[in-house]
Amino acid sequence: MMSGQLLEVRGVTKNFGGVQALTGVDLSVGRGEVVGVIGPNGAGKSTLFSVICGIKPTSGSILFKGVDITGNAACDICHCGIARTFQLTKPFLQLSVRDNVASAFLFGRGGQKVSGLREAREEAMGVLREVKLDHRGGALASDLLFAERRRLELARAVATGPELLLLDEAMAGLSTGEAQEMLEILAGLRQKYGITLLVIEHIMKVVMAICQKIVVLNYGSKLAEGTPEEVARHKEVVAAYLGDEGA
Ligand code: ADP
Ligand code: MG
Q1: Spacing, Cα 48 to ligand 1 middle (Å)
Q2: pLDDT tens sequence across 153-204
Q3: How far, in Å, from the CA of 204 to the mean position of ligand 1?
Q4: I need a surface site. Which of 29, 68, 114, 196 has the fewest CB within 10 A?
Q5: Position 247 pLDDT exceeds 50
Q6: Where would I find the beta strands (DSSP E) of 97-159?
Q7: Neighbour order of strands in the sheet with 59-64
Q8: Which residues are within 8 A (CB) of 109 and not within 5 positions of it... i.e. 6 or more apart?
Q9: Which residues contact 124 (CB under 8 A, 6 or more apart)?
Q10: What are 14's strand-pairing partners?
């Protein structure tokens, strides 16, 4: 079936043994959109990202640009134009910041376009400039501060050349100032590369500010979907999740 959507998640269910992490989840993301995924801990948000990135669902399918990519290998997912960041970042600690990004670049879609490590390192420095981390390019990843490590995680994802970027709690643990800086970096990346974003985010102010559409997961099911205003008014969402913040 043809569709104008960049990403379509269709009826995805994912069981881990006895745990039903996702139940019949549908979701679509249009090109250029910023879509938010919210929900309490254990709701299935990160599992949704994993299924989009090639973990086989128990049932259902993932379409990217109309092509079924369900269960594809990580390198195929990456080369078709999807990248994700993880809640817990795992850079190569004994590599420099620059070479962490260069290796992501070589793994990704730009990898075939360059002829060697020197060029990959130049590309890496370009991405590091975008995330305001170029001044740390020569440092070991293990020497980065927490907020810098989050930006390295972002740079590694961006370096693979994604059209769709999945961010799993990219703001978690950041101070208000650092989160603000992250928002500016994301705005810059969207402007420069036209990247579409699907974001899991706990800070409601951030979600409300940057997302055109929000999907609410609860116990693995979609509880609500709509504009930030619609979701904030949704009675069950307010009761189940937003609490006083949504009022
Ligand atoms: P969220 O990101 O919304 O906090 P998760 O997607 O991480 O939620 O988890 C959803 C549910 O699936 C939880 O009950 C979690 O314990 C379970 N789960 C996630 N990953 C696995 C796994 N690899 N094996 C077993 N259970 C898992
Ligand atoms: Mg999670």
Answers
A1: 10
A2: 999 999 999 999 999 999 999 999 999 999 999 999 999 999 999 999 988 8
A3: 22
A4: 68
A5: no
A6: none
A7: 19-30, 5-16, 59-64, 67-68
A8: 78, 79, 81, 160, 161
A9: 98, 99, 101, 102, 104, 105, 137, 155, 159
A10: 22
